[in-house]
Design brief:
This protein is an alpha/beta fold. The protein is about 60% helix and about 10% strand. The radius of gyration is 33 Å and the shape is globular.
Amino acid sequence: MARRFIAAILLGGALVTSAAGEAQTTDYESAIESARSDMMGNPGQALETAQIAAQLAEEGDAPGEIDARRATALWLQAEALTRLGRSSEAGILVESAIELLHGTAATSKLYADLLVAQGRIAKDLGDFQTALISFQEAYEIYLEIGEMRAQSIVLQSIGSIHSSGKQYETAVRYFSDASERFEDPALELAASNNQANAYRQMGRYDDALSAFERALELARSMESRMLQARILNNLAALHAEFGYLDAADDAIGQAFALYEGEELGEWARFLHGVRAQVSFGRGNLDAAREHIEQTFDGVALNETTPAFTDFHETAAQIYEALGAFETANDHLRAFKRLDDDARDIAASVNTALLAAQFEFAENELQIEQLRGESLEHDLALTQARARTRVAIAASVTSAVLLLLILGALRYRASRQRQRFLAEALYVDAATGLPSRNALERRFEKAVEEDREVALIMLSIDRTMRLAGALGGANFTKLSSDLAKRLKEDPAVEFLAIMSPGVLGVMIDYAPQDSLLDEDLMEVVAKRLLERIKAPFEVDEIEIDLTATAGAVLYTGPDSFKQGFVAIQQAQDSHSNFALYDGQRFGDPATNLALMSRMMKAIKAGGMELHYQPKLNLRTGRFEAAEALARWTDPEQGPIPPTAFIPLAEETGRIRELTEWALERVARDQLALQKAGHTVTLSVNISGALLCDPEFASHAGRIAAQAPGQLIFEVTETSLVQDTKRAAQTMNQWARAGVQMSIDDYGVGHSSLAYLKSLPAHELKLDRAFITDFETSQRDRLVVRSTIDMAHNLGLQTTIEGVENADILPALQAMSADWAQGFALARPMRLLELVALFQRQAEDGPTLVKGAASRS
């Protein structure tokens, strides 16, 4: 083929012959256009055409043009290879193309397109950190050159990464922004479908249904049968998952009817998979088996993709019901393989996102710093040139007065340039407000004066959407009006624009009104947030704003990065304010290594459970215990739970840790029973898992198979973040026989509204309630009223943090049900717990005298 191709060019011919024997034009532009048009429907043909384009690229005139043509052809080859599942090969081509463009077109659309391709390849290969960096860099280029459609595509790609990390709320925001960024039916369809899938994972049926219906409407307007069939399949799966079997059947019927007996292709197996779920839900096992067999016809169970995960679970249930246990086990193994892969991906994604939070802040500051350094360089150069010109002019004799006048004029011009550069360095060009460099200079001056100052960063929520809706000029005016309003607050010493939609505020750190330092920053931040809430009027339109604040004590230039991270920490905790917590994240590389060692410890037996007994105040006996994870690392020694559990939550590893704990608790409970002790055991469940339906199902199965009563303890703060979803998960566990406990009650919002809606069994009062129990009449009243409230709602109460056994009679008199704390018993290993119960059985209760006689 290559020989014929070269001959055609040498003869000036208009055609070349491909391997398939088809004629193709030899001009570069036609080959590129042909490759683009073939990309979606026939990536194999697109690859061939792009390879031809690569050879034709040599016909360019200038070296830069040839490089751009080569890079374009390489990019299209990489796109085709990615669609053919050959991501590793594609990655090599993309790197070569990027290298061709370095230094010549680093802000071009082509360069950004290559970065997007690089990001997709990295995502396919599991390198999510590289993917995020590539997408972010591409987005900034698209933003600079005004490529709105491309911006939308990148936002969807970033949203898909968040979705892979099970960060569905954030993913939905990205998909929403993507659909609003550029009006295009294909992009809006993809965004709606992605949103719907995220809503489905969050258990939000109505939202998912609305999004799927919008996607279906768009697919119909585009007259694409395949897109309609795929959306109908997703819609049917949603109906089936929530038990709407007739609706699911109807959607699948519509999908098959689109083809009216024609071959639907590979996608048909997924339609049969949903039909199998519907048939199984109706108890029709024969039909369910028929459809599930069509789903997996010709498919190797040990090589299936994530799209088959739900169908493996359905198949296992169908074959188990039919008595085909060996086949059921094959599907269970496949399901576990895919489920484990999904969890590993989620953990990797969350680790990458964790690191990206620091990199985002670092990039924001580096961009401004580079801009500032460039301006400072220009300013210094201008000043030097001015001095030189003055010296030259001064040395000129009166005989050359004209030259002196000329030198003076040039000096005047250079002074004007100096003023211009100074303004560019310290003034934001769009708003006229002080820039980040100006704010940094003010902070440095305060440090030189030995003053303690703090930084509060304020990020307008939904900045990109606002800017797009209002337009650049109106958004600039809104930013200026906002700054004027904030400067009216007496605590604001200086205010500057950090980046579009982000303001930096300097305040005096000295305590005021007897407030603690940290409280002062929060008080001022909350006051500024309240000022932001008052409506603004822009172009006769009333606009309501909200914002998120992050605060940090200024210690140097790194404080600006910490301010950005504090904003992210606030958003992660569903709050509008956070004080920077350096311990929460630490170094991303160190965190990743620690999580890797934690996973090895779980698998190798290096992780332990200790149990802290709970005292029944009505019987005076220890009758329950709470399981607590303990880890002694061979490299670092004992690692406190406060170090590894928050990190496990952030990186997605909390699920593996919790599932291990549940399985271990069930085994330990059986060991206690065999030793003659029936004990209720409690397990802490992270709020990060409440919206994970797969974990909810797995945890429910473990609890249902446990030999005794299990209690799942969920913190109050995690419940108020998404009460509706929490209630759904807790109801599911309650049906499996689990009792629910609301832990750390009193440190969150303490709302009766959510207490009434949750199937809770127990309220655990936080230790803060009894810190001053013996000396504070108010604290005793709060404890008594909380116990009464819990009993009125049908809940038992446990008093945590009992450090003094002398308060037990008072707690008894208040009708508290349980107590727990170091004064009663410290956390202990299982054998020590067995020994405690054995002594209690022999000697009877000793801590609460006369308690056994109480009703």
